[in-house]
Amino acid sequence: MIALSRLSPVLLALALAASAAHPAFAGPGDKALDDVRILSADDMQGRAPGTPGSEKARAYILSRFNHIGLASIGERFEQPFTFTRRDGATVQGVNLVARIKGTEGGKALVVSAHYDHLGVRDGQIYNGADDNASGVAGLLAVAEAFKASPPKHDVIFAVVDAEEGGLRGARAFAAAPPVPLETIALNVNFDMLSKNAKNELYVAGASPFPYLKPILVKVAMTAPATLKLGHDTDADGKENNWSNQSDHYAFGEKGVPWVYFGVEDHPEYHKPTDDFATVPQDFFKRSVATVVQASLALERELEAVAKASGR
Predict the structure, then answer these.
(1) CA torsion sign, 118 to 276 to 59 to 191?
(2) Which of 86, 119, 132, 205 is 20 to 30 A (C-alpha) from 168?
(3) What is the DSSP string of 198-242?
(4) C-beta separation of 224 from 293 below 8 A
(5) Tell me, what's the pLDDT at 14?
(6) Along the chain (311 residues), what's the average pLDDT of each consecutive run of 10 residues?
(7) Residue 54 is inside which H or E element, if any?
(8) What distance in Å separates the CA atoms of residue 227 and residue 255, rounded to the nearest whole number?
(9) Which residues are CB-neighbours of 144 under 8 A, at least 6 positions away?
(10) How far is the C-alpha of 61 from the C-alpha of 48, rounded, in Å?
(11) What is the CATH classification number for the domain harbouring 256?
């Protein structure tokens, strides 16, 4: 495990500072609510890549990695990369990558969520509570669950940057993964877990990867949230097919099967009003409990998934 003392002085100071309800559902979501609140606060300045707000968000996530007891792969959690923004500017993004070693090894599961958002535009902060502080919070809850109940297989946690500009962080991860690509059996991606007027969470992936359907159907039967399979075909139009709409697509481009958890678009999507105050807390806690349950179930079946996919 990397120690806080091995972070840069700026990140160390921010991480130490960062370390400094709704009772209807008693699940694993109270800490996740704190994670969303902190990551979507105004002082994070919308977490645009290459900004002080992004650095502050990384410091908080790193403090959570250390608190959970995650290990780095190599010397550092931080995996920097550069990309060219649409306006021609060159920006350094930073992925944060951690691992829990499996008790038996073999194939690996990658759990991903992007931490960037739209930053400050025309003087307004786009805080991105749902998009995607909620997904990062879900990932951290999954990490806590696997730390409490060690997995058979390695579980890699990729908190990636620059999704909003074209999946840049996920593509950087997939182009140079910290473990051999052929050992990655599945990607589980979280992007927007917290807001739905119908209290519905969707999971995509069962149509392109039908061997995943029995696992996901079984999870849906007992999930704390209403979990619906879909949004992974063109049956309702290309705009309703989420297969290429978030970081899981970067894994799919490399031949890695994926599962994507998220909600449908809502009035706050990519608006300055996507704040913590607009998060329905009971639904979000159920959503987090659902993605934890699903991740544990998928890890248990990882060897079968790898065999069915030919990986």
Answers:
(1) negative
(2) 205
(3) T-EEEEE-TTTSGGGHHHHHHHHHH-SSEEEE--SSSTT-GGG-G
(4) yes
(5) 40
(6) 36 39 53 97 98 98 98 96 90 97 95 98 98 98 97 98 96 97 98 96 98 98 97 91 96 98 96 97 96 98 97 93
(7) helix 52-68
(8) 26
(9) 28, 31, 68
(10) 15
(11) 3.40.630.10
Q: Which residue has the tokens 């182009």?
A: 175
pLDDT of residue 27: 59
- pLDDT, position 146: 97
Q: Cα–Cα distances in Å, from 85 out to 98, 219, 250, 285? A: 26, 39, 18, 35
226: how many CB neighbours lie within 10 A of its CB? 16
Question: In whole angstroms, what is the distance from residue 140 CA to residue 8 CA?
Answer: 22
- With beta carbons less than 8 A apart as the criterion, state whether 130 and 138 touch: no
User: Looking at residue 88, what is its pLDDT?
Assistant: 87
Q: List the Cα angle 9/75/49 in 5-degree steps.
A: 60
**Cα(275)–Cα(37) distance, rounded to whole angstroms?**
8
- How far lies 92's CA from each of 56, 258, 307, in Å? 15, 27, 37
Lookup: tokens for 157 = 């946690």
33 in Cβ contact with 81 (< 8 Å): no
pLDDT on residue 87: 84
Burial class of 294 by CB neighbour count within 10 A (0 to 12, 13 to 18, 19+): buried
Identify the CA nearest to 191 among candidates 169, 215, 213: 169
Number of domains in the chain: 1
Q: Do 266 and 194 touch, CB atoms closer than 8 A?
A: no
Q: What is the domain extent for residue 265?
A: 4-309
CA distances (Å), origin 278, targets 32, 98, 161, 266, 269? 15, 30, 24, 11, 11
